[in-house]
DNA sequence: ACTCTCATGTAATTAGTTACATGATTAC
DNA sequence: GTAATCATGTAACTAATTACATGAGAGT
């Protein structure tokens, strides 16, 4: 369903386009929001045309089909935006690694979270670079803002988690600052 | 692959269990990290047993099979945690709605983001309730911490976005505080 | 006897990924 | 002419959802 909505959204925002154009837009503007390759997009466009959410308005060079959103498509899109509440299906590999972190010993756990932190930082820089490329507000700026905040939050989480991991199992037996009881790990 | 890892993780953390037990644990401890129903879990366990990542150690009442993780299973799990870097496949319906928000007029957009905000707040309360149920640290506490920070960040984002939406298209033509130029929307 | 929860599975469908296949146009 | 990019598709496979199906044991 959501692929359909993403395609309708792109056609609504930037006008008629071919499957190829839409594939490119998934790689650029939509890249941080929804992913889809051409092998998924072409068949979906055909189904959407069969359902009359879009039509082939023109055929360009070498069989290039230019799709245009129909009023049925627009109302489907509008209905999804105003009536549908996403259920945020929790399926995140990062969260899963995070969940399972206590299975590793401290050094490994620290290495894992440090790797994550580096990824979050890279992502943050990438998103910051997208901000106002020509100094004007763009479609997707709220999504971009959300992504930036998310990345920043994740970096902070990683920093704090690394500190916590190091603190709860210090590398040497130095008892000079034992003012805080180490949290005991919970065995199975 | 990740379902497999989640199952290995549960078996590693809390010891031998049946498909039914594991399904229950997906509903409780893992609920905010990875989702799977019994119809996905049973066949996967059979495949994992065929691959010798787990074994049937005991059979309980009414055909209940108790699975135990093998050393192959443990090393597979360990390898995934230490070597595999998740690629955070961006596929979020909430981010998609966010991205498409500018297609709505201001009132509708505000209503949408307010609905999101309510959901984020509910989620935050739900997660906060899971914190230290018996006052002691638990498996999954880093994941829980990440989830809580995420929910809090999302609430803040929603608050700021609602304000921004209202500001860039005020409900009445009051020019008394026009010290700030409204951001011009970018047409298709 | 009946109902509820426990407990395990399969079937059908939809969504998504990876690999295969083909041909047109443009730039060198 | 040849290589790169444009452009569109199909096939095979894996992952996930929804629905169907069945039976055992426990409590009333």
TrEMBL record, chains A, B:
The keyword Ligase does not apply. Residues 91-165 form the Transcription regulator PadR C-terminal domain. Keywords: Signal. InterPro entries: Tscrpt_reg_PadR_C, Tscrpt_reg_PadR_N, WH-like_DNA-bd_sf, WH_DNA-bd_sf. Residues 164-188 are annotated as: Disordered. Residues 1-19 form the signal peptide. Residues 7-78 form the Transcription regulator PadR N-terminal domain. This is PadR family transcriptional regulator.
């Amino acid at each position: 369903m959501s692929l359909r909505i993403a395609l309708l959204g792109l056609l609504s925002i930037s006008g008629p386009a071919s499957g190829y154009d839409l594939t490119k837009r998934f790689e650029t503007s939509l890249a941080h929001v929804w992913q889809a390759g051409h092998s998924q997009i072409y068949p979906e466009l055909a189904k959407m045309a069969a359902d009359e959410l879009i039509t082939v308005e023109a055929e360009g060079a070498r069989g290039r089909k230019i799709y245009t959103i129909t009023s049925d498509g627009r109302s489907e899109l509008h209905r999804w935006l105003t009536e549908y509440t996403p259920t945020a299906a929790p399926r995140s590999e990062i969260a899963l690694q995070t969940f399972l972190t206590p299975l590793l010993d401290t050094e490994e756990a620290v290495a894992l979270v440090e790797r994550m932190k580096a990824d979050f930082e890279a992502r943050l820089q990438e998103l910051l670079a997208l901000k106002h490329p020509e100094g004007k507000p763009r479609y997707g700026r709220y999504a971009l803002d959300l992504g930036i905040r998310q990345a920043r939050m994740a970096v902070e989480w990683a920093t704090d988690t690394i500190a916590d991991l190091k603190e709860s199992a210090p590398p040497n037996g130095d008892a000079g600052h034992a003012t805080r009881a180490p949290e005991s790990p919970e065995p199975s």
